[in-house]
Amino acid sequence: MWPVTTRLPASPRATREATTGSGPLPHLRAGAVLAGGILCWSLAQNALWGVSGRIGLTQAGLSEVTVGAVFAAALGAGLAGVTAAGALGSRLGRAVPIGVGTAAIAGCVLLSSTARDLAGFATGEILWNAFYPVVLSYLLGLAASLDPRGRWAVTVGSASSLGVACGPVTGSVLSDHAGYPGMGLVLCALLLLVAAPMTAVARHASGRPLVPGSIRRRGGAPAAILAGRGSGTSLVPQMGAPEQEVTPIPVTAPRRRAARSAFGLARPSDRG
Predict the structure, then answer these.
(1) pTM here?
(2) How many angstroms separate the CA atoms of 177 and 172, rounded?
(3) CA angle 165, 166, 170 (to 5 degrees)
């Protein structure tokens, strides 16, 4: 597509944003912690995935057909997990799905790596593949919320891809030196370690709007969207919604006295 897209005219709005929107990365510390955390997080996931077939064949004693059926069910559970993440949305915020989901994945990794029969292997693989896309979607959403221009989303996505690439090699080396249960224990500990800083970043960024001008309640639910077009500070969301104008109504003393008499609230001095 590159030869075709080079002939397309540049959008004036895109050119203006490219020239005026330069600047350092916002939330540098939180973004760096998230990028490092998701690199280790993705590495642990794919370290198990790279040797899951060998675990099922050699340690659990399953046939290739049975292992293939377990993987098919696990991938179907991943599709169900994505659907569940979309339905859940921002009801629980980002910190709870990331922290609790990563802890659940760590338990599934340990269960799969120590499985010695069909029940343990299938349970670990299916639950793990169900939780994995849920947490990943929230991590990518968290990265997007750190920078309206999407630079942290690209950085975190690249770190995740690097972890995916290094995962199978890490899983093979760990399983060769420590065995499958030892590998699972190391990966479980790694996931629990990275869960804490990533959850802290999610709590720090809780309520930060994904786009300029959107205000979100605690947990990430949209509260109000204000139109800030044409203003020079469009990247800074305006807090609150515009209030209705209050018109003062002058009330004279005789009217107040008559109103008090009508409701039986007049003082004795007023009645006299």
Answers:
(1) 0.67
(2) 9
(3) 145
Instruction: For 141-192, write each residue's pLDDT tens digit.
Output: 899 988 888 889 999 999 999 999 999 999 999 999 999 999 999 999 999 9
Which amino acid is residue 242, in one-letter code? P
The rounded distance, in Å, linking the Cα atoms of 115 and 15 is 56
Cβ–Cβ under 8 Å, residues 156 and 140: yes
**What backbone phi and psi angles, to 5 degrees, belong to 224?**
-160, 145
Other Cβ atoms within 10 Å of 112 Cβ, number: 30
- 102 closest CA partner among 201, 218, 31: 201
